[in-house]
Design a protein that fits this description.
The structure holds 2 protein chains of 2 kinds.
Chain A: E1 5-12, H1 23-37, E2 48-52, H2 64-71, E3 79-82, H3 88-101, E4 107-115, H4 121-129, H5 144-159, H6 163-177, H7 184-188, H8 195-200, E5 203-205, E6 208-209, E7 218-227, H9 228-234, E8 239-248, H10 267-270, H11 291-304, H12 309-312, E9 315-317, H13 323-332, H14 341-346, H15 374-386, H16 390-394, E10 406-413, E11 418-425
Parallel strand pairs in A: 2-3, 2-4, 9-10
Antiparallel strand pairs in A: 1-7, 1-8, 4-7, 5-6, 8-11, 10-11
Chain B: H1 14-21, E1 26-36, E2 44-53, H2 67-74, E3 79-82, E4 89-90, E5 108-111, E6 115-124, E7 137-144, E8 151-155, E9 168-173, E10 184-188, H3 198-219
The chains are: A alpha/beta, B alpha+beta.
């Protein structure tokens, strides 16, 4: 029988641009918080260290995780880096989970960080774009905002969202972040925004304006995972990882239209495709949705026994680097039928106080997006929510979901080239 | 066997020197006072030394089995590949078929028509560093006629407000191709009419104004 695996500790740095500290100091800042909250954990008890950062280019340093590893006192322990684009941090959590579930290790540390402030913004975009196809998509002027925008344009064309629907998602996330003392948006902008503010912010790639987009951030986050016996020694409030799922799709979003591997695998999404002549051979995911995430969700929900996600999940932290992809994620995470994502934001169901609050932390457009740390940091917030520690962590109880028992964290890389979903339960 | 040079377009040899110039040597520094602290409700001040360094290099990228595509561009021809087993047509080309049933069958080359349909598009108001001076521009994903994939490219000869999904386009080449996907671009095939309401057109025009001003300011008229 598989061992049960729990998250027993969490910590994160404040997100900002810039954070002047070194990456290893930011990891230490996050780990200090974790150690303070987990007094029975000794650094020597950690059996294995899984590290997450996205790009060697931002700091012109390869194998940065070796620096981090000895800095926090772990030389002698097994360490390696997981790298999977934007999915890197959540995938690192899943790799640590594997290390424990197989019985190889009892206690695994997961660290994640990114320092994106060393090069100017267009260069940041260029470095991130090097994680798209640099033979065909990047050389014609593409970068991630452009790819995701084109995907959103197709989604809008087929399913009828408006720019205002997308703006509502930005308003939700950014205003949530104002209540989060770790959040970059709170220090960078610091006041409430409206749909009109989003509409009036500078164009990045239509339909996206700056306020529709993820932040560029410095920051770090850490988690400690443990096997059941060890977990119960370290905390009386373990948060169990009850479901994990992974999936993949093409590197180039433009390759997805007729992809033979998807044919017949998403009957539930193919019926909703409008009756137009340009219907591709594989109507789902097309260029509008992320099949990698849908497959990851299917697997994770099946493992955790979740059959009605909107009802059974109490809060969700998802990777929505652009408003339109957060909307597509509502669909791909089975919160609504395909093509109906807009209704969840129009009805307020994904707002704090709605039936399933999404990105209470503010997510990547509010809390911050230091890529290698992002979904670990979002998992930290989910962990605190499930332990009802938000009043302590945020300094107020406005953002605590009372009695939360089940949280989902989702990540993906590229334009959905890889997808990951984790179910957390107390 | 020794590698034989068949054709060469030389680059400025100074690039070899320029690209090696940086190598992370310290160019300058500044000392700043900035924020420190774990949470916004627990901030403090600290001083930091910031060092500026440069690093670059030249990449000599072989286009491998896809070399035919790039050589075709030099002759203003569009070459794609197809799988002789399942018939799937690739643009961008692939050397091997990805259909799992075809077990990596070797693809064959064929000329593709210089026309297709805009599957989707975006109007770029910001970009990665190399493309900033070209803003605003239209990025399109075009399904070339008979292809089973779409290729990213640039759209010209159209008011951004007139862009729409499923618009027929023709492919044209620049005057002096260099063997790069920027050698071709797309134009609308027939007269276009905006699918946007007049309010949406006006809003988009307004959104584009600051982009044009910014480019003018940074790169000149």
């Amino acid at each position: 029988m598989r061992q049960r695996v729990a998250i027993v500790g969490a910590g994160m740095s404040r997100m900002d641009l810039p954070r002047y500290e070194l990456a290893e100091e930011l990891v230490a800042e996050a780990l200090t918080e974790l150690l303070e909250d987990t007094p029975d954990l000794n650094i020597n008890d950690i059996d294995c260290h899984i590290a997450s950062y996205f790009s060697d280019h931002f700091e012109q340093q390869l194998a940065m995780h070796w620096i981090i590893n000895d800095y926090i006192g772990l030389s002698s322990k097994p360490v390696f880096r997981v790298e999977n684009g934007g999915a890197t941090p959540l995938d690192a959590v899943i790799v640590a989970y594997w290390g424990i579930v197989t019985g190889q290790y009892d206690i695994c540390l997961v660290t994640g960080w990114e320092k994106m402030s060393e090069v100017h913004t267009p260069k940041v975009n260029e470095f991130i774009a090097l994680a798209s196809d640099s033979d065909f998509d990047f050389p014609v002027g593409g970068f991630y905002s452009g790819y995701y925008a084109a995907m959103a344009v197709r989604h809008m064309h087929l399913y009828g969202e408006t720019e205002e629907d997308l703006a509502r998602i930005a308003v939700k996330n950014k205003n949530n972040a104002l209540k989060n003392p770790y959040a970059q948006w709170a220090s960078q902008y610091g006041k409430e925004i409206s749909v009109e503010d989003v509409m009036n912010s500078r164009l990045v790639a239509w339909p996206y304006k700056t306020m529709d987009c993820a932040l560029i951030s410095d920051g770090a986050a850490v988690l400690v995972l443990a096997a059941e016996e060890a977990a119960l020694k370290l905390t009386d409030k373990p948060v169990w990882i009850t479901g994990v799922g992974l999936g993949s799709d093409t590197m180039r979003p433009g390759d997805r239209v007729d992809n033979p591997v998807w044919r017949g695998r998403f009957a539930e999404c193919e019926e909703s495709y409008p009756d137009i002549w340009s219907k591709p051979l594989s109507p789902y995911p097309e260029m509008t949705n992320l099949a990698s995430v849908r497959l990851a969700a299917r697997k994770a929900y099946e493992m955790a026994g979740i059959t009605d996600p909107l009802k059974e999940i109490d809060l969700m932290e998802l990777l929505g680097p652009y408003t339109g992809i957060e909307l597509a994620m509502y669909e791909d995470l089975y919160l609504c039928p395909h093509g109906k994502g807009k209704e969840l934001i129009r009805n307020g169901e994904v707002e704090m106080g709605g039936s399933l609050p999404v990105n209470i932390s503010g997510g990547v457009m509010g809390q911050g997006h230091p890529v290698g740390a992002t979904t670990i940091a979002q998992a930290c917030v989910a962990f605190w929510e499930l332990r009802e520690e938000i009043p302590d962590k945020f300094g107020h109880d406005d953002m605590q979901v009372d009695g939360a028992k089940t949280a989902v964290v989702q990540g993906h890389g590229g334009t959905g080239a890889v997808g990951a979903v984790c179910v957390l339960q107390r | 066997m020794e590698t034989k040079m068949l054709e060469e377009r030389k680059y400025d040899p100074n690039w070899e020197i320029w690209s090696e110039k940086g190598n992370l040597s310290p160019l300058g520094y500044k000392i700043v006072k900035g924020q420190s602290g774990h949470r916004l409700d627990r901030l403090s001040q600290a001083e930091y030394f910031i060092s500026t360094q440069a690093h670059g290099t030249l990449y000599h990228h072989s286009c491998g089995g896809l070399s035919q595509f790039y050589r075709g561009l030099l002759k203003k021809e569009l070459w794609g590949t197809f799988c002789p087993q399942c018939g799937f047509t690739y643009m961008p080309p692939r050397s091997h078929c990805w259909n799992p049933d075809c077990r990596l069958t070797k693809c064959e080359w064929k000329r593709l028509p210089h026309e297709g349909v805009v599957h989707t598009y975006t109007i770029m108001g910001f970009s990665a560093a190399p493309f900033l001076s070209m803003l605003p521009f239209i990025l399109v994903f075009v399904r070339i006629r008979s292809a089973n994939t779409t290729i990213a490219g640039r759209m010209k000869g159209i008011d951004p407000a007139d862009m729409a999904c499923d618009m027929p386009v023709v492919l044209e080449f620049i005057d002096e191709p260099r063997g790069n996907p920027m050698d071709f671009y797309f134009r609308p095939k027939e007269g276009v009419k905006t699918a946007r309401t007049s309010k949406e057109v006006e809003r988009l025009r307004k959104q584009l104004e600051p982009v044009r001003e910014w480019v003018k300011k940074n790169f000149g008229g």
